[in-house]
From TrEMBL:
UniProt organism field: Lentisphaera profundi
Protein family (similarity comment): Belongs to the binding-protein-dependent transport system permease family.
Alphabetically ordered keywords of this record: Cell inner membrane, Cell membrane, Membrane, Transmembrane, Transmembrane helix, Transport
Entry annotated with the keyword Cell inner membrane: yes
PANTHER family xrefs: FE(3+)-TRANSPORT SYSTEM PERMEASE PROTEIN FBPB 2 (PTHR43357:SF3), INNER MEMBRANE ABC TRANSPORTER PERMEASE PROTEIN YDCV (PTHR43357)
Subcellular location: Cell inner membrane; Cell membrane
UniProt domain ABC transmembrane type-1: residue ranges: 32-230, 300-493
Protein name per its UniProtKB record: Iron ABC transporter permease
Length: 503
């Protein structure tokens, strides 16, 4: 977990340039400013979409509530680079919008802050939605009901009571969005918006490892700052009242229902239906014999194998880490828990860069890991280990230790107790963590670009190369295949968590 930080520091300290020359790198400070501006605007835009969605779903009886719940989370299925490609293919010159309407789109998408911001906001807003919706489900209804009895209307209740109590989960979700935006590589590269990840890849492509590592180190420092703020918010979020005795669910007038459903329809259309429609449009323009071939299905198979292997390794490390953090609560448990979450601090591009720099000359008993399947598996396992740990910890916290104590009092061994009592209760969290790592690995772009074995291709590489060549119609097939596999994993996660908990 510490390897990316170690390699970045080593490359910078061993650089041919001194630190002053590195800090005087051209476009360094404007690039940092653009990255922070994009992250901040994306978090704000995501909050304006996600908070009303969560509030309406948790507080009002609206038609097809479960369907809207799924649709609000569905943008997580779309990799950011596929969404960026779809908006570029829809609104760029001779794109979907211009071919249908005959008019050019009024806003520039490629090379602009607006296009990058729109794509990143629509993809990442579910992160804020999930935290806000979970907090609303835990809130005690007494304060809102008292305000309603005292004559306050719905808007006053929301602004004076509900929203102030949601400051911590909303801020925590926004910090996570900032973290994901800073670490994203695909969207800025496709839309030609020059952020830190854009320059890391450019310097790496030119063979300038020291400058690439310098930009990577700056990105790690910024990400560490956001991660520490998110950890602080998470600790405070645990102080929120947890009352699951009953939920507020108000009936609303036909006019209010129409307004709410219009808002949901607009947000779902922009975040899900428009990208999907664009992909299907370009799919219809292509030739099936060129799109569906052996190479495509081979790439899908390679991606699935990589995702399964990374998910297995991450889950195997997540279980003892979560157990030490929750049950042991010693110095080692705290250390393991903190170290496991470093994956959130290292973007995939930084991990890929570190692995290339380190493993190119590293071997064990004459065996080199460089350009083998082990490197992308290990890179993805490190990158997404925090997701597995969080999922397992969530299930472990909900298991009452007295059940295990009762089993041991009745004469069962510690092994038999864990096998018959703990393991079945822990299974949903383990499976959900496995699915989270699987779907994240399936979408991971920079690690597969930098660490893939020679001659072996993944769906993400296939999509990236075709987008780079502006082969929009040929991108559609691998994009649809990737979305289909991701949807299966997302359905499993929702079935394990959101839908069942909502019941």
């Amino acid at each position: 977990m510490l390897l990316p930080l170690y390699v970045s520091l080593k490359d910078v300290l061993n650089s041919n340039y001194d630190l002053r020359a590195l800090f005087e790198t051209r476009d360094l400070y404007p690039t940092i400013g653009r990255s922070l501006l994009l992250a901040s605007l994306t978090a704000i835009g995501g909050a304006f979409i996600a908070v009303p969605q969560a509030y309406f779903l948790s507080r009002y009886k609206i038609p097809m509530k479960k369907l809207w719940l799924i649709l609000c989370v569905l943008p997580l299925v779309f990799p950011s680079y596929i969404s960026a490609y779809s908006y570029l293919a829809a609104f760029d010159n001779m794109g979907f919008y211009e071919n249908i309407t005959g008019w050019k789109f009024p806003f520039k998408i490629s090379g602009s802050l607006f296009g990058t911001w729109m794509s990143m906001t629509l993809v990442n807003s579910p992160l804020i939605f999930l935290m806000t919706y979970a907090a609303l489900q835990r809130q005690s209804p007494s304060c809102e009901e008292s305000a309603r009895l005292l004559g306050s209307n719905s808007f006053q209740i929301f602004t004076r009571i509900t929203l102030p109590s949601l400051k911590i989960p909303i801020a925590s979700g926004m910090l996570l969005v900032c973290l994901y935006t800073l670490s994203d590589f695909g969207t800025p590269s496709i839309l030609n918006y020059k952020t830190l990840t854009y320059y890391i890849f450019q310097h790496l492509d030119r063979g300038s490892f020291d400058r690439a590592s310098f930009f990577a180190l700056i990105l790690i420092v910024i990400a560490f700052f956001f991660l520490q703020l998110e950890v602080y918010m998470t600790r405070r979020r645990s102080l929120i009242t947890d009352n699951k005795s009953r939920h507020i669910s108000h009936y609303c007038s036909p006019l209010k229902t129409t307004v709410i459903l219009s808002f949901f329809s607009a947000s779902v259309f922009l975040s899900c239906l428009l990208p999907l429609a664009t992909i299907l449009y370009w799919f219809s323009k292509g030739k099936s014999e060129l799109m569906f071939n052996k190479e495509l299905f081979s790439a899908a198979s390679n991606s699935s194998i990589l995702a399964v292997a990374a998910a297995i390794i991450a889950t195997l490390f997540a279980i003892p880490t979560a157990w030490c953090a929750i049950r042991k609560k010693g110095l080692f448990g705290k250390f393991a828990d903190r170290i496991s979450f470093l994956g959130n601090m290292f973007p995939g591009l930084v991990i890929g860069l570190a692995f290339v720099s380190f493993f190119v000359s590293f071997n064990i008993f004459g065996y080199s890991f460089y350009q083998t399947l082990w490197l992308p598996i290990l890179g993805c396992a490190i990158r997404f280990l925090p997701q597995a740990v969080s999922s397992v910890k969530t299930s472990l916290v909900q298991i009452n230790p007295r059940l295990e104590e009762a089993s041991q009092v009745l004469g069962h061994s510690d092994f038999h107790t864990k096998l018959k009592i703990t393991a079945p209760l822990l299974r949903p969290g383990v499976l959900a963590g496995f699915a989270l790592v699987f779907i994240s690995t399936l979408k991971e772009l920079p690690i597969t670009l930098l660490l893939a074995e020679p001659g072996k291709f993944y769906l993400t590489q296939n999509i990236w190369n075709l987008i780079d060549d502006a082969e929009y119609s040929r991108v559609a097939a691998p994009a649809l295949l990737l979305l289909g596999i991701s949807c299966i994993s997302l359905y499993f996660i929702l079935n394990q968590k959101l839908i069942n908990s909502d019941d």
